[in-house]
Amino acid sequence: MVRPSIATCEPSTRPCLATRGSLPRSRTCASLLFLCLLLGLTVFCSDANPCDSKLPLLPSSMRAFFLLECNITLTDLPDKTMEAKCLQSMFELIDSGFFNETKIQEIAKGATEINVPIYRANRKLVATKNGGLENPSPLVFNPSWNREVRRVQGKRFKYPSASGVQLLRDEEDIAFMSVLELGELIKTRQVTSEELVRIYLKQLKRYNHVLEAVVTYTEELAYKQAKEADDLLSQGTYLGPLHGIPYGLKDTITVPRYRTTWGSTSFKDQVLDIEAWVYKRLKASGAVLVAKLVAGSMAYDDIWFGGRTRNPWNIEEFTTGSSAGPAASTSAGMVPFAIGSETAGSITNPAARCGVTALRPTFGSVGRTGVMSISESLDKLGPFCRTAADCAVILDAIKGKDPNDLSSREIAFEDPFSVDITKLTVGYTKDADMKVVEVLGSKGVIMVPFELNYTVESVQGILNFTMDVDMLAHFDEWQRTGQDDLYEAQDQWPVELRRARVVTAVDYIQAQRARGKLIREVEKSFTVDAFVGNVTDWERICMGNLVGLPVLVIPTGFKNITDPPTNSCRRRTTINAGIYAPPERDHIVSKSSRIYVLYVAQ
Fold first, then answer.
1. Alpha-carbon gap, residue 96 to 303, rounded angstroms
2. Beta-carbon contacts of residue 7 (< 8 Å; ≥ 6 apart)
3. Cis peptide leading into 322, omega within 30 of 0?
4. What is the pLDDT of residues 552-562, one digit of tens each?
5. Predicted confidence (pLDDT) per residue in 401-427, tens digit
């Protein structure tokens, strides 16, 4: 039977292909057909489902181009051999041109009859909600090099004493005190939590119009939590160094009754009734939430639906991202500490740009329930602070097994304040800040030249495959419904996630196998207790995140900006260093950084 509106179909079940007269179809036409197959938009013919009943399922723009490019007319369909040859060109684009004609026919038929229904069933089952807050992947990454199962000691860190600290007169000076100093002021009742909340809310509102670092002020909640902290202290209950201390959360972290926007226009009014695990831990420690801080849109960079976050040291410069708000707010004295996250550079880059101390801990140290997910095997939460000691205090409060995060673990970190530095061997790379090397060496640390060697050349590609495919799984519906057209920076997630759509499962798993090789080679090459090196090098960022290495970013100085507008310009570029350690050795980076900071402060 002839179908005059579209094409002629044989009474058989197979992909519907058409001819350009008597000539072979173009590579573009074949590519379109195969792309439709990958996207679940295959044109399919059978007696019950003729071609013209399926073609309208294509997007209108693709349908028009399909008809024009393939020049579909009232002609007979090609045989199966021709179909296979036409599809061959598209298989070559994904480096799979080794299939013969028989196998290509089998793949086309199987993908249509088996794969596409499974794609749709899985999407319906687990992918109708964006953000990856539910149905986490069981593909759990464990960066530990210790093959032995060990019991975890519940011993807490012995914090350094801040005794003798006095309340400063100027509120601006108070705002730049460390967590340990503020904790001592509260413990000795020189200041109340409510007074600190008032000071930091004032700072936030004073500078946010310039820095664009705050999404939501949690003022009502802050005063409520501060009053509870003050009441507990008056009753003789002290919860520790975070008791009554204000802080901020990156706006990828959920807090009930408040927006969690992920920095995105698509989700700017989103309120999730989920209490994030890290928020629970901080609340139990007595900390007081004063603001939800900017995350670059869907945790990509420093651009978000309300603007672009700026560097307090140079407001003509942006923070980078995606933990833009935590970095800028801590740097500007708007909060004493903040929690950010990293998949690939989102803690290290903004911390370095804004000149603050920040810790990207060992993967799995901190539970991620209630946090927007990019990649289950890469995402990490960590603190932005004024000092290395503060970072250790915060990590001690938030680390531990989250029962709803399969990748989180109880890790027995040693007390960084009790490490014998004279027994440490610390390497330094060619790009290390030699001032840090000299300071550590002068305090008794054994310093040696060092390079981390591995043969895997595709480190950056492995990270991109892992991050982008995982991210697309969490935002599949967002892309399918065209919300990516509303994204704030079209050259970021939209482009990357469209490319991720055609990464095959086999290639994704092969990337993970290559990642395993990288991990083994880095473990073998890591012959020192820690090493000092550049913290913003992209290759090192990718390697460190794939392997799960902890790193602590420390500011080491400043330099003048290039071409200042006036001779009296106070804008500066920060100088930073990173101290890296093997997984589960976070205490070493904290101790090494603290030695440097204490020496410089003398």
1. 38
2. 16, 18, 51, 52, 72, 73, 74, 75, 77
3. yes
4. 999 999 998 88
5. 999 998 999 887 888 888 888 899 999
Pairing type for strands 530-533 and 425-428 reads parallel
The pLDDT, as a whole number, for residue 108 is 75
Whether the Cβ atoms of residue 322 and residue 372 lie closer than 8 Å to each other: no
The Cα 45–Cα 109 span in angstroms is 11
Q: What is the spatial distance between Cα 139 and Cα 160, in angstroms, rounded to a whole number?
A: 39
Alpha-carbon distance 480 to 99, whole Å? 30
CA distance 116 to 173: 61
Q: At what angle do helices 459-474 and 505-525 cross, to 10 degrees?
A: 130
| pLDDT over 90 at 275, yes or no | yes
- The answer to whether the beta carbons of residues 532 and 429 sit under 8 Å apart is yes
What is the rounded average pLDDT of the residues 210-217?
Answer: 98
Measured CA to CA in angstroms, residue 506 lies from 377, 510, 513, 515 at distances of 18, 6, 11, 14
More confident residue, 12 or 331: 331
Backbone angles phi, psi at 215, to 5 degrees: -95, -50
Residue type, 197: V
Phi-psi region of 420 (alpha: psi -120 to 50; beta: other; left: phi over 0): beta
> How far, in Å, CA of 186 to CA of 151, rounded?
35
Residues identified as active-site: 250, 322, 346
C-beta separation of 319 from 353 below 8 A: yes
Dihedral Cα 154, 592, 287, 366, nearest 10 deg: -60
* Residue 512, C-beta contacts closer than 8 angstroms, at least 6 positions apart: 139, 462, 466
